[in-house]
Amino acid sequence: MIRKNLARWLSLLGIMIFGILTVIFFFSTRRMYTGSESVYREWDNVLIKMLYLGVILAICGLLIRAQKLLTLKRVHIAAVVISVLATIICIILTNGAKSIPDADQWYVYVAAEGLFYKDYTNLQNYIYYMVYPFLLCLSELYAVIARIAGTMSYEVLRYAQAAFVGISVYFSYRIARELFRHVAAECLCLLFTLLFVPMWLYSQFLYGETFGVCMCLISIYFFLLGNRPGRGKTGREILYWSIAVIAFGITYIVRPALLVVFVAMAIIQVCLCIKNKIIFRLFPLGLMLIAGIFGQKLMSVQIGRAVGVDVDNGMPVISLLIAMGMQDNDPNNTGAGSYNGYNYNLFAETGYDQAEAQKLALQDIKRSLYRWYRNPVSMMEHNTEKILNQWTEPAYDAFTLTCKMEEPDKWVDNLYYNGLHNFVYSLLDCFQSLCYFMLTFWFLHLYKEERTAAEKPDPRDYLIGLILIGEVFFSILWEAKSRYIFPYMVIVIPCVAGSFVHFYNWLTGKSAAWMRGKQRETI
Fold it and tell me: Which superkingdom heads the taxonomic lineage of this protein's source (predicted)?
């Protein structure tokens, strides 16, 4: 009964959230222009958008109709080929863009370089590493990649990230196969991930995004295998869970904000344990948490001791970022709750005193809550702006974060600034609309199945939707930048593909019934 009620409420919540986003996003878009993180609202040309969507839907429909020509073996071969193709595209972009890391990614690269050459001068001299000690873990992983390659350079790390993109494409396909068991869904998933341009762009961003997404997808896939219905071989299940634990540990070390994925997996696991009455299956979740949180802490302490950096006096991230997310101050026109100069400046003003910075942050949180208590409308306006700035910006800050280049090829320049850029942005705009609509339809499908079907949906079917719902609420609290939505839009692609197949079958079924009704009326 608990699982049934939770499933229904979760479905209704998903319908409401993504239904609203579908309607809003169909008519308007938040846009960032290359080179700036300023956010602008633009009204969409609905006719052009419908034309784009019509072409996308027609191509997808043709792919579904051609599924009889496809076998599981052929699709798997195609998945391997497309994954390699995605990697090649990112490598070509790396060679054509000649991107230069700046801001935070520059510090990450400098630390990785120091760890690779065992020259810790910069790590000891820059206060940045004391403020953000957890980033030393990412730098160490980059240094490991460089040691494997035998050399350190921007290109080497980006080639590795190109490989992570290819692996992400492959595991997205595997997730679609595991959840939907439908070759059309698998093919659509491959098509969507291959053409998802922000994946290409983030392969140039040396801040762990593609690394984290790749490990996260692997963790999700093996979590699904570990919870496959029916009792499997114990040894195989142990292997699945071991990979899931290790992959999530790396995910958290690389991108801690992806903890939302763990929370969603924990909720699904609890539902499965209640359903199957097997409590010991909660044990791997504890291992995941240990691998992530304690693994990161242990790794940063060891690196700090080796290089002579104080890692115990870092910024109290949670309190400062929540306080920053409540600020209306917007000096850069990046939107409410997005001015990340707040947290660093506050920490610096206290002389990098953790206790004092946390005290001041909590005072700011209390002031914001009191302000909203006195004026609830301002609270709604603030949080609505935060959600829309993050969830209706279809490029996820990818162009701006990777636009610093040294003599890029002409086609790369067009991708970032000119006619090709506008076309790609419009396509991403339509694709995101499609994602939200298909998520809405998927939750409608799950709600209907819970109410009417004799065999209820597998709790695993809710996982990806639950991850997205969790991130919506997390994005209200956190720094309001669309770049933090990027990993979740990669994660959702298998669900979008599967939902499209259900939508197509529903639509063709309704059309056939309508035609039969018309024929009977004629007779």
Answer: Bacteria
